[in-house]
Design brief:
Length: 129
């Protein structure tokens, strides 16, 4: 299995999961890691994001509109409402251009009632609420 590491100023470097560098990154810099796969033709990066917000009508639609505007492929969406009326959405998105990741996260964070957006890191268990 391979993982991507977002470098400072040089793009993404790809390492095997058992590489000594990656083992160090897994311990100390998890927030800079991406699940990556080799594609047949071009590099495609899959990233899972978790959005937490106060539940309201059109929330999912507002998030989907932002993703569509940035022209990112949606692989899957899992959405639920917690006991305290908080909406939790897990989105698996596919990027050809990782520069769009930060842009989409910033735009989703600005949506009305969104409390938090974060990357779900490789191997991390999805939170239940």
């Amino acid at each position: 299995k391979i993982l991507g590491y977002i470098t400072r100023g040089r793009g993404v470097s790809v390492h095997r999961q058992d590489c000594p560098n990656m083992i160090n990154y897994l311990k100390n810099e998890k927030d800079r890691l991406l699940e990556v796969e080799w594609a047949d033709d071009t590099g495609i990066y899959t990233v899972e994001l978790e959005v937490r917000a106060i539940d309201r009508p059109r929330l999912t639609s507002d998030v989907m509109d932002v993703i569509a505007d940035v022209r990112i492929h949606i692989n899957s969406v899992f959405s639920r409402v917690t006991k305290n009326n908080q909406a939790v959405m897990n989105l698996k998105l596919e990027f050809k251009d990782l520069s769009k990741l930060q842009a989409v996260m910033e735009r989703i964070q600005k949506i009305k009632d969104v409390l938090e957006i974060r990357r779900v890191l490789p191997g991390e268990v999805r939170s239940d609420g």
